[in-house]
Give the backbone structure.
Amino acid sequence: MTNAPSTPGARAAAADTSAIDFAARGPLLLLIGSGISWLVISGLLALITSIQLHSPHFLAQYSFLTYGRAEAMRETAFVYGWAANAGLAVAIWVLGRLGGNPLRATNWLFAGASFWNIGVTAGLVGIAIGDLTTFSLFQLPRYVQPLMVVAYGAMAIPGVLAWSGRRRGVTFAAQWYAVAALFLFPWLSSIAQLVLLWSPLRGVAQDVAAGWYAQGVWTLWLTPLALSGAYYVVAKESGRVLPNYDSAPLGFWSLVFIGAWTGGRHLIGGPVPAWIATVAIVASVVLLVHYVIVGLNLRGGWRARGTAAGFIRFGVVAYLLAGALDAITAFRSVAVSTQFTFVSTALEQLSLYGALSMIFFGTIYFMVPRLTGVAWLSGSLTAGHRFLVTIGVIVLVVALAVAGWTQGTDLLNAKTVFADVIAHTKLPLLIVSGAQLVLLGANVLFLVNFLQSITTSVVADVVALNPIRETTEASAS
Amino acid sequence: MKNGPLFLIGIFAALSISWGAIVLGTGAQLGSLTPYYDDTEGNSFPLRRSGIAAQGAQVYADLGCAACHTQQVRRPGFGADQARGWGDRQSVARDYIFETRPQLGSLRVGPDLTNLAARKPSPPDAQDLMKLLYAGSETHPGYRFLFDTRKIVGERSNQALSLPRDLAPPAGYEVVPSNRAEALVTYLLSLQNGYEYPEARPAAPEKTAEENKNEQKK
């Protein structure tokens, strides 16, 4: 930390930095760096699949890039590459800070992160050669899945130690969400593997289990990771107790207890017991309690300024919107036209990109200067990323929703021949490709900015640690 | 929330309850489904797939066909699946008991395939499907890697695709489907849900008040 921070934000960040942050910055930056790299890879695949939707012959001659495989790779790179890496960095850092001690067992974090990313890489290769499981959000091949649980367990160790060895008895909402995510993913994944891969259930019971797992990934793993970052940064940036904080425990427990029950809404009208869908519809509505509480709590960040707060504000609004739309589209009368259409894709993107990723972006913008002690190198890259990603997400979700709505109305009208149903979605799908291109560009800016900032900080540290070299150079000249 | 162990027990309970109810509950409800024996037909349904069709099911899964095609028909009256000729009855759990990995799908970029082999008005034949898989169409990609273009040695293979001129290989060459393509097409042509299980009979649509009135007048 030799070079003096130039901007007020960076000075604040530097003043806020402590030994707690330095203890684990290597592995945490590794997680963030791999996360952003996967985000770029996933963006490339998303561009390919979005083009294939309106021009089906695009790259069709390559068996490893059929729409089905490329889409599975995109989703896996996004969820297990980007969201998992970024989310774990956020959760473990938050637990370390709120625990009040430097993180311990960081070697485990490093080893776990390495094996996790090896697992994702091997998984993508496996999907490319046709070993996908065909279950949504669970596409990693069977031979990679156990490794993921073990690697995740290793990564979680510093977080769990920080939780159990915390200095204060009182805990914060950010900690509950982070610890829950650390514990829940290995349980969720191992029991899903048991009933889907190692000792598969019979017939469509598999699809019910897969739906439960996919919803669990969203509500019990990724959402808690994001909310731990959001609760922490919003509290920090607003500098006061979050409004209606008394209700935060209810918000947490309602998510954990009710969230996983909402998965069956995708099986409405399907060949499964009807109670699965009915329970899911009820659960989707009851879960609104959670969304209301999160909204009330995090409105504390409405007036905060800065990049981090801006991203998180967008993410929280998208999160609340996604919750409301999930509940609305769960009703049978709405689902009859939105099911099997791009409307569900739009909602997934609203959740994964608009809510989750935006909150992760915000938290990363907040975290990195505190880990490195150096501000983000380029303000214009940061601004460019924020501008492009905001535009990209909005256009992506709106265009997908329009495509889905057209598709849904056309599908209900049996007089429209199927080829026309697809033809009518062409224009919105072209716009989706444009949005994916913008998002890819935005995330490349983000990656460049991150790598440059890290390099600067490493150079600064090397210079700080080797003062002798400077003097010898001076005497030689 | 000061009590760490209680916190962990809480999240563990939340996960276990939903898993127990949704996953194990469904497993218990559907795990004992047996094929339905029909006395008049002298056969039990669903039919088991032939070996090559079962291989085709794996090709269908590994290419990721389910990303665009569903295999679940909704009941008549809920959506237009019946009107589109995708099947006259809804899919039921019993349809899938022999599937190692059901391919229900969740997005209809392409048509539903549950009842492809008996689709109305006219189902495709093997030659149609081969051509679609090789050359694609305006809305379907062509998967040429499923086919071999090879020099005709001696007689032309009877497996060779008869393609229109703009797609045909150069003179002296022929396009033959690989084993994977053969298996996939056999699988696709085995897809049908013509047999009506007792639980799949569409319930008669409820009469509206107006229809009831009309009936009374008669």
Remarks:
- Helices of chain B lie at 4-30, 51-63, 126-135, 179-188, 209-217.
